[in-house]
Amino acid sequence: MTKDEPVRETPDLDEALFDHALFDEALARLPSGYSEGLFEGRRWGATVKRDADLRRIWLFAEDLAGKDIVSFNLYRLASGRLSLKPCEMSTRKVIAFVLGFAPLPPAGTGMPSRGLRRKEDIR
């Protein structure tokens, strides 16, 4: 799928046929802010923004050597349900990315990416 595909309506995650807990756990492991990592053997850059109350999470990622992107908003509704809103791509593509993206350690640290770096971690 590419940037040029039309926008599609998607069901809430509770209506999709996949492991919601696994998706939520994988998303929680992605660092806030910008990170680079591997997905399907290619290097990607991903930015994750989380509202302070974690009711909204936004992700935008792009293949650094190509034209592919992944982008979505995830809303945690008052009912406890999750509402996933992919931007111009299928829900399946978003789920595959979140489950398969592996952040790389920041350059020179040998440590896993955490999004935010402490002063002590900077060499």
Care to describe what's here?
- With 123 residues, the protein is of the alpha+beta class.
- The model is unreliable at 1-16 and 113-123 (pLDDT under 50).
- The protein has a six-stranded antiparallel sheet with strand order 5-4-3-2-1-6, with helices on one face.
- The protein contains two helices and six strands.
- 16% of the residues lie in helices and 32% in strands.
- It has one domain (13-103).
Question: Which key phrases capture this entry?
Answer:
alpha+beta, disordered N terminus, 6 strands, globular, single chain, six-stranded antiparallel sheet, 123 residues
Summarize the structure in short:
The chain is of the alpha+beta class and 123 residues long.
Topology of helices and strands:
Elements: H1 20-29, E1 33-39, E2 42-50, E3 56-63, E4 69-76, E5 82-86, H2 91-100, E6 102-103
Antiparallel strand pairs: 1-2, 1-6, 2-3, 3-4, 4-5
Beta content: 25-35%
The Cα radius of gyration reads: 15 Å
Global outline: globular
- What portion of residues is helical? 10-25%
Total number of helical segments? 2
Number of domains: 1
User: What is the N-to-C order of secondary-structure elements (H for helix, E for strand)?
Assistant: HEEEEEHE
Specify the structural class: alpha+beta
Point out poorly predicted stretches: 1-16, 113-123
The overall pLDDT average reads 80
Termini separation comes to 40 Å
DSSP E strands, number? 6
With strands numbered from the N-terminus, the spatial order across the biggest sheet is 5-4-3-2-1-6
What's the story with the biggest beta sheet?
A: 6 strands, antiparallel
